[in-house]
Amino acid sequence: MDAADRDEGATDSERAQRLESTRASWNRATHNHNRHKGDQAAFLRDGGSTLFSEELELLGDLAGKRLVHVQCNSGQDSLSLARRGAEVLGVDFSDEAVAFARKLSEDAEIPARFELAEAVSWMASTDERFDVAFASYGVTGWIEDLQAWADGVARILRPGGRFVYVEFHPVSWSLDADLNLRGDDYFQEKPFVEPVGDYVAESQTGLGGSGELTRGENDIPASSWQHTLGDLVTAFSRAGLQIERLREYPYSNGCRLHAGLVWGEDRRWRFPEGVARVPLMFGLACAKPA
Known about the structure:
By secondary structure, this protein is α/β, with parallel strands linked by helices. The protein has one domain (about 15-285): Vaccinia Virus protein VP39 (Rossmann fold), CATH 3.40.50. It has helices at about 10-35, 40-45, 55-60, 75-85, 95-110, 120-125, 145-155, 200-205, 230-240, and strands spanning about 65-70, 85-90, 115, 130-135, 155-170, 190-195, 220-225, 240-250, 250-255, 260-265, 270, 280-285. The strands form 3 sheets. It has a 7-stranded mixed beta sheet, sandwiched between helices. Strand 10 (about 260-265) and strand 11 (about 270) form a beta hairpin. Helix 6 packs across helix 7 and helix 7 packs across helix 9 (about 230-240).
């Protein structure tokens, strides 16, 4: 079953209401997340970066490249990419996130553009084209129609352009807090409906949190979908992108996905010794034929 067929019973009005509730939940969550992180502008202005080696390895040299960061959230990664020589546009549907990103760009003195738009509709309509499209950490799970998203990525790339996606592995959500397979069904087709959590407070310094981190409240429901790794690779292939590289990683960068994971000084969360590992992240690089 394709992603577009998952919720045939929903009307356009119901989908629009669901999107607006998800946007409102992300606005609340974004405020909660950023209040934990201290002076982010000073961190970036002084040469700090929020990127990990996995993204940088797959992206390669960015000097002089036009790059679009799809679902960029509050822009910290976008500005870290701009610092590496890319001309960056970040796109996100959260009013709170885009306003924060624009102010952060100004205060950090790192030029970048940020556009407020829902990703699928924006990619289907924009006239802009890019050398690189980038997305990372909590992206397609918020998209119901995965094929439309993949088609949009292919559309906005120039011939010969590349798409890099680093994401939490979909099997990771099947684990519970104790790392047993009692979490979400890997093949669930109906949406999950719950507020966006304060994962920055839960991850502590892993995601840049500092000081005493009190978990922010959020009671606004957001809708998300499970897409298997097979769904993802198939969608990008059908969009005409050529898969160059697919890697899986037995750890989580920054974000504490489950309470049973163990913190490392390299800002990664790993399985405890003696526990059989499954992938917690994957990295994918694709190319649009020239």
